[in-house]
Amino acid sequence: MTEEIIISGFGGQGVLSMGKILAYSGMMEGKEVTWMPAYGPEQRGGTANVTVIVSDSPISSPILSSYDSAIVLNQPSLEKFEPKVKKGGVLIYDGYGISDPPKRKDIDVYRINAMDAAAEMNMIKTFNMIVLGGLLKIRPIVTIDSVLAALRKTLPQRHHNLIPQNEEALRKGMEIIQKQ
Questions:
Q1: Are 148 and 79 spatial neighbours (Cβ–Cβ below 8 Å)?
Q2: What is the rounded distance in angstroms from the CA atom of residue 24 to the CA atom of residue 109?
Q3: What is the pTM of this model?
Q4: pLDDT of 78
Q5: Model confidence band, residue 95 (pLDDT cutoffs 50, 70, 90)
């Protein structure tokens, strides 16, 4: 199993941390991983993306031109990465940031209203975990237990009280993702 993923959106949406947690989770499961972030100098509010590869075998290069899965959280990201999803791949988008939805018919397209769900749950900062939960429902690359263990390792001790909220967000994402 090798899964090549691009996660893209505005800085401040938790794009890079989502990728980091996914990669760390894969590492904790004994898988080979790469995590390669890219962002503009403005960070918060500018565009950011991260490429994550999770594999059972050695990874030859972290640089990709096409992806098995794409998570896009804003319109510019959709326009840039929709054409780069491999035929038969998966594209997940948050309805809040997309005004012109994906058009391709040769990939599986899923909508997740993560921003709306985060607002309803009064947990805006867990937006990215809702999205990650949606991905893991469609592509169970790693387990939720590994994600929670990765959160314990990557979050500062003072934020460990937020792990139950993050678990709730992951499970919410698994519930609300919908095939288009």
A1: no
A2: 26
A3: 0.92
A4: 95
A5: confident
